[in-house]
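User: What would this chain look like folded?
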Amino acid sequence: MSWTVEIIRGFFVAFGALQTITNFIYLSRKKGLDLARNQHRELPDHTTRKQVRVKTICMFSFGILFWATGLFSYFTHSYYELSFIIVMGAYTLYAMIEALFYRYWRTFGTVIISVLLFLATLFGHV
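Assistant: Here's the prediction, encoded as structure tokens.
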């Protein structure tokens, strides 16, 4: 496998593990949503507690998807290009919807980063 594929696989495992573990902690602790608000600084200050909870659940879910995709690729010693593209595409779509919902400059920054990562995933195997 090429070094770009290895970087993509490593990113999926690391990002997925980080998002799964941290957001699980936020959802399971009494003051966890306050910690989640601090981590998800791309959200505007007027974001409600319910919106922070939804964001935390979404990031927990995407964490599982990223982590599972990356780990499965390592365990099978294969790069399943379509699964990586689908997961990264879904995350990019989520980031775009969030940016359109909040219309806040930091959420658009997240979209730019996710689009770049999607393109790297899409063309990384070449």
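The chain is about 80% helix and 0% strand. If you want, I can go into more detail on any region.
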